[in-house]
Fold these 3 entries.
Entry 1:
Amino acid sequence: MNPDAFFALYRDLPQLGPGSDVCTREALKRLPPLPPSPRVVDMGCGVGRQTLVLAETLRTRVLAVDLHPLYLDQLEREARARNLSAFIEPRRADMGALDLPAGSVDLLWSEGAIYHLGFGPGLHRWRPMLAPSGLAAVTECSWLTDGRPAEAVRFWSEAYPSMGTVPENRATAEREGYEVLDTFTLPASAWWDYYTPLLQRIERMRPTADASLREVIQETEREIALYRDHGHSYGYVFYLLRVQ
């Protein structure tokens, strides 16, 4: 897939994956109390929809980590517009190779990004950064049913072959040294909050799309159609964790 075509389609969207401000706040509400002035990191923040919610709710500085400067620039613009710049520190870095001191993070957040590392490897990589009894809130695409449509199995076996069930992911988190405090599945509305602006963008760009962009559009429409038909069988799940 041509990266320039990908960024052309996804640039300036309000979010880059399933999620919602309501779900972010619900996850925060379900966590135990944080220490005063908690040290917070948002891994793979993208354009920072959830970063802004964290900053606005916690009123503490959030280190927002992503590899792509276009996304961080968009986050900075939105932070300025919402008077939140003082609470957000964008950093261009690889979330899988971030060099933070051991025990320096009270709350590690990551929505729709850990799949780049794999659920277990990502949790393993991030655990040393967390303070004793530090908290993590991570969304991960997970199988929700035992009976899985063949079309969904084919798609995810290509896109994310290591995708697990909720019990499997809970067990993985425990093996990596976390206590699983809670889990909840994002509602369908959190997917359509992402897909609806994307579909609108596709319709605007389709008439003038070149071959590379048409390929990205085709793959994106395939993904959306799959969720429309088989979204009951998989979804993003919030895993709320504490270091043991």
Entry 2:
Amino acid sequence: MDLMWETEVRTLLGGGLVVYPTETFYALGCLATLHASVERVTASKGRPDGKPLPIIISGWDMAARYLRMGGAALELAHAFWPGPLSIIVPVDESVSPLARDRHGRSAVRMSPHPVAARLCLEAGAPLISSSANISGRPPACRPGDLDPELLRASGALVMEATPWPAGGLPSTLAEVVGGHAVRILREGAVSASSIGEAGFDVLAE
């Protein structure tokens, strides 16, 4: 275990919440397999019921363990992961129901951010990766911009490790809907045109 992040990893393994940097914004997260912790993320953010929380994975070994995808979805992942593309795919039942839709799917991405990826790897399970803000308020790219109300409500440990999030657009959210057809549910840092150039038929939501 990297001693610099030992406290953060132990916090996650103990059921605590951590605010950590990703490639886009700071995220509020916990182990996605600890339902009580995921409930705290939802409550702290004031997130609407029925809106599953997104997750990140650390690499392909974790993908094989926790994701149930093949075919075009796997091709799409290999084309853009690690990167800011969240793909809706079936996941292992150990992932909290608050991070799964009624079909057992989660919005998953493999983060390219070195801190987020290493934290997830050391924790040994997918992490909830919801933007570190009260729902409806702006996300943060610097520790000093984090909402004090969120920090009080969540009791989360804040990582100030660099590099800081780059900001800009959030991750793109997509799902494979048949063959090589990809529906864009939210266009963000990965453009629809780049997905099309990778050989997929892009459908707008």
Entry 3:
Amino acid sequence: MSCCALVGASDFNSEHFMELDAQGQFDYVIAVDGGFAHLESIGRKADMALGDFDSLGYTPKGIRMAKFSSKKDKSDMELALDRAKAQRFDVVYVYGALGGRLDHTMANLQLMAKFCEQGMYVNAVGMNELVMYVTGPDMLELPAYDDGTVSVFSLSDQSTGVFERGLLYELDDAVITNRTSLGLSNEFVGEPSVVGVESGTLAVMVALS
């Protein structure tokens, strides 16, 4: 499957990015506004830069670019996700979208759920967490972690038929709404685990060591 990395202006987990980049995971890298400076700091040239560049403070030169007015109805990250979808990437890793301003983080979590519902596999990488999405009917398989936590939240009003297997606390055919703490802080027990849902969209948050 084809994979694109988006790098935004918020906290950048450069170690995670460089590890996947060294493995040849990314077919295309988009610098989203201030994410251009993050990539420059590690000597990685983006395939294109996108945004209104108010966070960056200047317009990049010598690179393919899509520049937008700051007076727009979509955030730079939404425009970048639109671009990744238009270019038909199957998998998207989003860096620099978590942390910093809470309103931007909230907007990004909601946006990524939308694109998951449109058939894209979306992963958001923060400094201390990995956020994955699954839209029903589907399931997400997680590797065996000796320890650590995983939290599952509904990004829909209601997610039904939720199940969790291979974790300390298992769920079976549960209903999780976006008004509950059910799903918070389950624990890995050293074996592969599965999170699935019949209908709705779940955000699956794994704490990074």
